[in-house]
Protein backbone atom coordinates (compact mmCIF):
# COMPACT_ATOMS: atom_id res chain seq x y z
CA UNK A 1 0.00 0.00 0.00
CA UNK A 2 1.23 3.47 -0.88
CA UNK A 3 2.17 5.56 2.17
CA UNK A 4 0.24 8.87 2.35
CA UNK A 5 2.44 11.89 1.79
CA UNK A 6 3.10 14.03 4.87
CA UNK A 7 1.42 17.43 4.70
CA UNK A 8 2.95 20.46 6.38
CA UNK A 9 1.02 23.62 7.26
CA UNK A 10 3.22 26.63 8.03
CA UNK A 11 1.78 29.50 10.01
CA UNK A 12 2.84 32.83 8.51
CA UNK A 13 2.83 35.79 10.92
CA UNK A 14 5.39 35.26 13.66
CA UNK A 15 6.53 31.93 12.22
CA UNK A 16 7.71 32.53 8.66
CA UNK A 17 7.39 36.30 8.75
CA UNK A 18 8.78 38.61 11.43
CA UNK A 19 6.03 40.97 12.61
CA UNK A 20 8.71 42.98 14.39
CA UNK A 21 9.82 44.09 10.93
CA UNK A 22 7.93 47.32 11.62
CA UNK A 23 10.28 48.32 14.45
CA UNK A 24 12.68 50.30 12.26
CA UNK A 25 9.84 52.42 10.86
CA UNK A 26 8.40 52.91 14.34
CA UNK A 27 11.79 53.95 15.70
CA UNK A 28 11.93 56.77 13.15
CA UNK A 29 8.57 57.95 14.44
CA UNK A 30 9.13 57.43 18.17
CA UNK A 31 12.87 58.05 18.49
CA UNK A 32 13.90 55.38 20.98
CA UNK A 33 14.21 51.75 19.93
CA UNK A 34 12.74 50.57 23.25
CA UNK A 35 9.58 52.58 22.58
CA UNK A 36 9.37 51.16 19.05
CA UNK A 37 9.73 47.57 20.29
CA UNK A 38 7.10 48.14 22.98
CA UNK A 39 4.71 49.61 20.40
CA UNK A 40 5.29 46.70 18.00
CA UNK A 41 4.72 44.16 20.76
CA UNK A 42 1.48 45.81 21.85
CA UNK A 43 0.27 46.08 18.25
CA UNK A 44 0.82 42.37 17.72
CA UNK A 45 -0.79 41.44 21.05
CA UNK A 46 -3.90 43.54 20.34
CA UNK A 47 -4.12 42.20 16.79
CA UNK A 48 -4.34 38.63 18.12
CA UNK A 49 -6.68 39.63 20.94
CA UNK A 50 -9.11 41.09 18.42
CA UNK A 51 -9.08 37.91 16.33
CA UNK A 52 -9.94 35.90 19.44
CA UNK A 53 -12.75 38.29 20.35
CA UNK A 54 -14.31 38.33 16.89
CA UNK A 55 -14.14 34.54 16.63
CA UNK A 56 -15.73 34.08 20.06
CA UNK A 57 -18.47 36.60 19.22
CA UNK A 58 -19.18 35.07 15.82
CA UNK A 59 -18.81 38.55 14.27
CA UNK A 60 -16.00 38.04 11.78
CA UNK A 61 -13.81 40.90 10.59
CA UNK A 62 -10.85 40.02 8.42
CA UNK A 63 -7.25 40.14 9.60
CA UNK A 64 -6.52 43.46 7.93
CA UNK A 65 -9.38 45.03 9.89
CA UNK A 66 -8.07 43.52 13.14
CA UNK A 67 -4.59 44.80 12.35
CA UNK A 68 -5.83 48.34 11.68
CA UNK A 69 -8.02 48.37 14.78
CA UNK A 70 -5.08 47.19 16.87
CA UNK A 71 -2.93 49.95 15.39
CA UNK A 72 -5.61 52.53 16.14
CA UNK A 73 -5.74 51.27 19.73
CA UNK A 74 -1.98 51.70 20.09
CA UNK A 75 -2.26 55.22 18.66
CA UNK A 76 -4.95 56.32 21.10
CA UNK A 77 -2.58 58.38 23.23
CA UNK A 78 0.69 60.37 22.93
CA UNK A 79 3.46 59.96 21.97
CA UNK A 80 2.07 57.55 19.38
CA UNK A 81 -1.03 59.45 18.28
CA UNK A 82 -0.02 59.16 14.62
CA UNK A 83 -2.14 60.80 11.95
CA UNK A 84 -4.15 58.79 9.42
CA UNK A 85 -1.49 59.02 6.70
CA UNK A 86 1.19 57.66 9.02
CA UNK A 87 -1.07 54.82 10.09
CA UNK A 88 -1.74 54.02 6.44
CA UNK A 89 2.01 53.79 5.79
CA UNK A 90 2.47 51.44 8.74
CA UNK A 91 -0.36 49.26 7.48
CA UNK A 92 1.24 49.15 4.03
CA UNK A 93 4.46 47.95 5.61
CA UNK A 94 2.59 44.91 6.92
CA UNK A 95 2.58 43.66 3.30
CA UNK A 96 6.37 43.95 3.13
CA UNK A 97 7.52 42.36 6.37
CA UNK A 98 10.70 40.26 6.19
CA UNK A 99 11.07 36.54 6.68
CA UNK A 100 13.09 35.37 9.66
CA UNK A 101 16.74 34.85 8.75
CA UNK A 102 16.75 31.05 8.91
CA UNK A 103 13.43 30.43 7.15
CA UNK A 104 14.69 30.20 3.58
CA UNK A 105 17.34 27.57 4.32
CA UNK A 106 14.88 25.52 6.37
CA UNK A 107 12.21 25.58 3.68
CA UNK A 108 14.77 24.61 1.05
CA UNK A 109 15.68 21.50 3.00
CA UNK A 110 12.08 20.46 3.60
CA UNK A 111 11.13 21.13 -0.02
CA UNK A 112 13.81 18.71 -1.18
CA UNK A 113 12.09 15.95 0.81
CA UNK A 114 9.05 16.14 -1.46
CA UNK A 115 6.57 16.87 1.32
CA UNK A 116 3.44 18.89 0.56
CA UNK A 117 3.83 22.36 2.04
CA UNK A 118 1.15 24.98 2.54
CA UNK A 119 1.02 28.46 4.04
CA UNK A 120 -1.85 28.52 6.54
CA UNK A 121 -2.75 31.78 8.20
CA UNK A 122 -5.20 34.15 9.85
CA UNK A 123 -4.27 36.65 7.15
CA UNK A 124 -6.32 37.56 4.10
CA UNK A 125 -5.45 35.47 1.06
CA UNK A 126 -4.56 38.48 -1.10
CA UNK A 127 -2.38 39.99 1.62
CA UNK A 128 -0.63 36.67 2.15
CA UNK A 129 0.15 36.30 -1.53
CA UNK A 130 1.79 39.73 -1.56
CA UNK A 131 3.61 39.20 1.72
CA UNK A 132 5.05 35.79 0.84
CA UNK A 133 6.01 36.91 -2.66
CA UNK A 134 7.82 39.97 -1.30
CA UNK A 135 9.68 37.77 1.21
CA UNK A 136 10.70 35.31 -1.53
CA UNK A 137 8.75 32.42 -0.01
CA UNK A 138 5.63 31.98 -2.13
CA UNK A 139 7.11 29.38 -4.51
CA UNK A 140 7.63 26.89 -1.69
CA UNK A 141 3.93 26.41 -1.04
CA UNK A 142 1.41 24.40 -3.02
CA UNK A 143 -1.29 26.85 -1.91
CA UNK A 144 -2.08 29.58 0.57
CA UNK A 145 -4.95 28.70 2.90
CA UNK A 146 -6.64 31.61 4.68
CA UNK A 147 -9.13 31.55 7.53
CA UNK A 148 -11.25 33.87 5.37
CA UNK A 149 -12.64 30.71 3.79
CA UNK A 150 -14.58 29.92 6.98
CA UNK A 151 -14.90 33.47 8.39
CA UNK A 152 -13.26 32.62 11.69
CA UNK A 153 -9.82 32.59 13.24
CA UNK A 154 -7.39 30.14 14.77
CA UNK A 155 -7.83 28.21 17.05
CA UNK A 156 -11.43 27.58 15.92
CA UNK A 157 -11.56 23.86 14.95
CA UNK A 158 -13.38 24.80 11.73
CA UNK A 159 -10.27 26.59 10.52
CA UNK A 160 -8.05 23.50 10.83
CA UNK A 161 -10.68 21.26 9.27
CA UNK A 162 -10.88 23.65 6.34
CA UNK A 163 -7.13 23.40 5.92
CA UNK A 164 -7.32 19.60 5.84
CA UNK A 165 -10.07 19.73 3.24
CA UNK A 166 -8.10 22.13 1.05
CA UNK A 167 -4.95 20.01 1.35
CA UNK A 168 -6.86 16.74 0.75
CA UNK A 169 -5.18 15.41 3.86
CA UNK A 170 -6.10 13.67 7.08
CA UNK A 171 -5.25 15.04 10.50
CA UNK A 172 -3.05 12.01 11.17
CA UNK A 173 -0.76 12.73 8.21
CA UNK A 174 -0.63 16.50 8.74
CA UNK A 175 1.65 18.73 10.78
CA UNK A 176 1.35 22.37 11.79
CA UNK A 177 4.53 24.41 12.25
CA UNK A 178 3.85 27.54 14.30
CA UNK A 179 5.44 29.88 16.82
CA UNK A 180 2.05 30.56 18.43
CA UNK A 181 1.07 28.27 21.32
CA UNK A 182 -2.66 28.87 20.75
CA UNK A 183 -2.20 27.68 17.17
CA UNK A 184 -0.39 24.53 18.28
CA UNK A 185 -3.20 23.78 20.75
CA UNK A 186 -5.81 24.27 18.03
CA UNK A 187 -4.11 21.84 15.66
CA UNK A 188 -3.46 19.23 18.33
CA UNK A 189 -7.07 19.41 19.53
CA UNK A 190 -8.30 18.06 16.18
CA UNK A 191 -5.64 15.36 15.90
CA UNK A 192 -2.91 17.03 13.85
CA UNK A 193 0.69 16.81 14.94
CA UNK A 194 2.56 20.03 15.54
CA UNK A 195 5.99 21.60 15.89
CA UNK A 196 6.21 24.57 18.22
CA UNK A 197 8.86 27.01 17.02
CA UNK A 198 9.92 28.62 20.27
CA UNK A 199 11.46 31.79 18.86
CA UNK A 200 11.53 33.51 22.24
CA UNK A 201 12.93 31.40 25.12
CA UNK A 202 11.08 33.66 27.57
CA UNK A 203 7.70 32.44 26.24
CA UNK A 204 6.23 29.42 28.01
CA UNK A 205 3.77 26.97 26.51
CA UNK A 206 0.25 26.83 27.91
CA UNK A 207 -0.14 24.10 30.59
CA UNK A 208 -2.91 22.37 28.65
CA UNK A 209 -3.35 18.80 27.50
CA UNK A 210 -2.62 19.79 23.89
CA UNK A 211 1.16 19.69 23.96
CA UNK A 212 3.33 20.17 20.88
CA UNK A 213 4.64 16.98 19.29
CA UNK A 214 8.07 18.62 19.01
CA UNK A 215 9.57 21.84 20.32
CA UNK A 216 12.43 23.56 18.48
CA UNK A 217 14.00 27.00 18.58
CA UNK A 218 14.91 27.54 14.94
CA UNK A 219 14.07 26.49 11.39
CA UNK A 220 17.17 24.33 11.08
CA UNK A 221 15.97 22.15 13.93
CA UNK A 222 12.49 22.10 12.41
CA UNK A 223 13.90 20.88 9.10
CA UNK A 224 15.84 18.15 10.94
CA UNK A 225 12.53 16.62 12.05
CA UNK A 226 11.32 16.13 8.48
CA UNK A 227 14.57 15.37 6.71
CA UNK A 228 16.34 13.02 9.12
Would you mind describing this structure in some detail?
- By secondary structure, this protein is an alpha/beta fold.
- The protein has two domains: 7-17 and 97-227, HAD superfamily/HAD-like (Rossmann fold); 19-93, DNA polymerase, domain 1 (Orthogonal Bundle).
- Helices cover 46% and strands 12% of the residues.
- It has nine helices and six strands, in the order βαααααβαβαβαββα.
- It has a six-stranded parallel sheet, with helices on both faces.
- The model has no long low-confidence stretch (mean pLDDT 95).
Main sheet overview: 6 strands, parallel
What separation lies between the terminal Cα atoms? 23 Å
Oligomer: single chain
**What is the top-level CATH class of the largest domain?**
Alpha Beta
- What structural class results from the helix and strand content? alpha/beta
Tell me the CATH superfamily of the largest domain: HAD superfamily/HAD-like
Q: Could you report the average pLDDT, rounded to the nearest whole number?
A: 95
CATH topology of the largest domain: Rossmann fold
Q: Please, how many helices?
A: 9
Return the string of H and E elements. EHHHHHEHEHEHEEH
Shape: globular
- Please tally the β strands and state the result: 6
Taken as a percent bin, the fraction of beta residues is: 5-15%
Which percent bin holds the helix content?
40-55%
Amino acid sequence: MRTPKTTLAFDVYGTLIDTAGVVAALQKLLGARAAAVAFSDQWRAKQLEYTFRYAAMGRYRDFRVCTRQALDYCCAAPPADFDAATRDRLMAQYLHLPAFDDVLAGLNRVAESGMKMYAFSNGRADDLQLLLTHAGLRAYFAAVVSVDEVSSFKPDPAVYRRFLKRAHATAEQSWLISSNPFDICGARAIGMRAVWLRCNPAVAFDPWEFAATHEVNNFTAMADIFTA
